Amino acid sequence: MSEKLKITIIGFVLFLFGTLSLQAQDITVGGTVTSAADGEPLPAVNVGVKSSDRGTTTSADGKYELTVSSDAVLVFSFIGFETQEVAVNGRETVDVQLVQSTEALEEVFVLGYTQQSKEKSSSSVVQVSSEDLNDVTTSSATEALQGKATGVFVTSSTGKPGEGADIRIRGTGSISAGASPLYVVDGVIGGTVDPGDIESMTVLKDASATAMYGSRAANGVVVIQTKSGSNGDTQINVSSTAGWNRHTNGNFEVMNSQQLYSYQQAFNSPILDPAFKDVNTDWEDLAFRQGLTTKYEATASGGNENTTFYVSGNYYEEEGTLVATGFERFGGRVNVDHQFTNDFKVEARLSGRYTNSDNNPTSALYQSYINMPWDTPRTNNGELKTGKETGWIGRDQSNFLYPLQYNYNNENSKKLTTNIRAEYDITDWLYVTSTNRVTYSTYRNESFLDQRTSAGSTNGGELYNYYSQSSSFLSSNLVHFSKEFDKHSLSGVAGFEYERNFSDGMGGTGVGIFSGLEILDVTAEAFSIGGFKTESRFASALTQLTYDYDTTYFLKASYRRDGSSRFGDNNRYGNFYSIGGSWIISNEAFLEDVDPITNLKLRASYGTAGNANIGNYLQSGLYRYSVQYSGNPASQPARIANPNLTWEVARMTNVGINISLYDRVDLTLDIYQKDNEDLLQNVRLPGTTGFNSITKNIGSVRNRGVEIGITSQNIQSSALNWTTDFNISFNSNSVLSLNDGEDIPNGLQRIMEGSELQTWYMREWAGVDPDNGDPLWIKQTKDADGNVVSEETTNNYNEATLQKVGSASPEFSGGLRNVVEYKGIRLNTFINFVYGNKIYHSARELFDSDGAYATYNQMVLKDDWNRWQQPGDDATHPKPVFGGNKQSNKPSSRYLEDGSYLRLQNVSLSYSLPGTFVEQIGIRSARIFVSGDNLVTLTNFSGMDPEVGIGGYAGTKYPISKKYLLGIELGL
Length: 972
Hints:
- β19 and β20 form a beta hairpin.
- It is built from ten helices and 51 strands.
- The chain is about 5% helix and about 50% strand.
- The strands form twelve sheets. The protein has a 22-stranded antiparallel β-barrel.
- The chain is mainly beta.
């Protein structure tokens, strides 16, 4: 932290505890508060004094009385009405009329092509504001979405800085194609945004919302709206955040010297030496460090009636807790809107970013847990060991600290995006827009293996360089109209889009190189070289109509036709459609006198969307030219053509309801079914064809679920506000059909008809034989139809039956946020949770191996685990045997664990300094805050972190970090 920033913060703190303000003469003021709609008095209205703890409430006849200073400002607030601020100006009587609030219903959802108020929306949509996204300090906008939107499951397989998260909206619906959502930035498909520049993220989930994006919306859509300027004085905001990170290992712990010695004594390990008791190397402590996180942001916005602007710059750096890892990002954005004439407007968006990542060039993460505490990293004279020395005990014979002196792995990327949107009003009800975006990005990776290290010794040192670039162009040209007549309203959009994507790259490895040169040209020999070029194109026509009758009945229909170069000539174009409607029941006369219900809306929709998230050229018959014949260039067939290859299609049905009670509690409930059909599969071919397989559209997967979201204004007054947001999502997944009903092996999982997509398929663990400590598994006997007729236990691993033993998909997930505000103090807490998924803890095959790996360190058993020692023991772990106990550490449900967890993801406490003070020092606003991320995780999982990624595998994961941060924000 800079000296200047320290002085500023200290000055603020001293002011908070030591400042005295002059008070104007006190007077008694009173009056009556009524409703502007009917003039009726309003009881229980909160009447407070701005920037003070003084306050009262109105009586049953709407009257109040309060002693205040003559220059005080009164704040009148009441649930369901707009808050008013009224200056006393020496008056003794101040009467106020409050206007009913329509803010909640007038909230606008940005849907990309269109905008729609919350009141009129017939879609299943959830919007997350920038304030809600920025509570967690991260470089990834998608990671900040975790737990904050119903139907959205966000998980990360690594805690490595700069890595993003996996997102699934309403489950996984594809087998081999991508299952990530489509991203739309400022109305245009594709793009990335730095978290600080986001105004809002809107998640589109049902067909009524997603069908407008047709061919690429089967996995849902995330619409990102960036910040923009507004008419008025230029406002400058600067912020600085700094803190430290500490890695967390959850419930996972490896043994120290004495623990490992005692463990190996139990099976008379032949490698033991009494001298080992005097050595206790903490390899984990050597591999990890306390990292630093810093973030700086500066923005300027403003404008006049014709031109508004928003300019931002940001820098983010996170030092990895694992040595030799880290991430930094520079970003900038310029958003300018200019009204050339009353009918013509242009919006320009220019953004750029540069990222740089340092990757650990050794297996430090893995070795920090597996290296033996009896090995030491340095010789007696302080020199680092290589691990090859005589007397090194660990099987891998590697000291990760040694190659860290010489080897490195670095990657960086640059991206520039330009987006121009022109809008021309033809009439007051008809206008056209043309949005055109160009994106250019580069990526570079370089790694070096020094000849003095094990990895580089074979070839006398290695240098690898890789470089790629990509560009895209998208043009979206639309006609919009909106017409109202009597109680009817009709609006719509129609247009055409074209997109072209191109990328190429090359990489090469040179061997035989001196340290410090690190240029391919000086390597002794070119070891390998490769490259690629790839291109794809999309063309689309789209239309959407929305009808509204008396702001009570709504109907929306859309149609889109997409063509893509990724599909076969016979099925290049696909048609996607949706229809949805809603009924605001609370606008009906029969609900007018039902006071608790202030809003009640029923929604329903059905439609289709496609999935084009696949590689290029799968439909093409290809030849491989990277072969030789008699020293001459040659080719051979590589893939058989499939001109019928086409889109995966999702058929979505959604029924939802929105309820508001007393303008205090908002409830959203959605029930959905999504059937993904024509899934892409590699179908095996007879050997006589000369090909192993062909990609076809075969198979279907169904996701069904329920989503519940609740927002509650628990307390709302002039001095104290307390808001709670809660969401929970239930999803069940089932494979409906596969090619000829044939199962698809998928590692330790198997895709089977009638089962979940991510079903674990392995031998079922039956515990430990209490008589002899042998491992036991389940052996099934089946009849001719495949039905299980009997089960028994066996200690022979090869006799055990492969079977379904659980799913990697959670039963439900969600989040809980509480925000309490009191006189400038704001406390924000956020909890996210996941329940019902099974994690395969693959690291236990090595760390919990019952003697199979005597030269690897082992994990400390959980409190409720125990090892077999003598006949009659009821144990969770078999008897340890040098070399292993009858393959007890081979894959089975023994290592399949409950992945449920509840995490206190963020706590932040901030204080906004009083306006009177900041005005005196010449600034507009000031806020200081402290924050903590990933503070507490409650779970029974024995591994480092139950958040392991969509696949459900848990190995030696780069651990997540606890972050403790201090920040300051200034408005100038």
